[in-house]
# Entry
Amino acid sequence: MLRGIYTAAAGMLNTQLAVDTMANNVANVNTTGFKARYVQYQAYPEIQMSRIDDEGSQEIGKLTTGVEIIGTPLHFSQGHLQPTGNALDVAVDGDGFLVVQLPNGETGYTRNGSLKLNQQNELTSEGKYKVLDAGGNPITVPENAGKIVIQEDGTISTEAGQSFGKLHMVRFSNPKGLHQLGDSIFKGENPIDVQAAKGGNSFKQGYIERSNTNIVHEMIQSITGMRLYEGLQRTISTQKETLDKAVNEFR
# Structure
């Protein structure tokens, strides 16, 4: 009896975490370069049940004891590339990342190519994080550059054709090991330099990458999760009533 209550309670905790994860995915459906998380489950060990009587012990089957959540890794499938017509927007087509400088001076990585100029005329992601070239230096746009042109390999030039910088692209052999900081910024170790426009990675000017959240799937899973949570609540109530009756009537 108590085992059933514990199993249902553990299920409620797991379901709550799963629904919270889905809610965060839905809340960021319009966040540029956002990567959704998914929930990984693992079953608890099964218990071999036996019936013991005067004739001895007889196995009657196995009892499952529920599941636990072992992680909520990021899902790095590419989101839809949406045209914006803005010359400062650039999407990464492939599995690469832009390299940016964090406020504390450390290096971060992002798929958010919504670029803006700061007061020093440096390219930044969302106006917060300086975009770096292969040498680790911020990219400064010359005064009176006009409409800048970003080629597929990341080379940046003025409207007149004068090159003044190049976006740096890297990738990771295990992107699921990246640590998410917020604002579609990630921290990671051992980045691999990518020759953009080769090997399936390129920059697309005038595009941004939308969140890879599947809104329909997340909403359906959220509804399913809430119904499961309610069902587990009823299970606990039923087992509690049965336990109360057993204690009161057979004491």
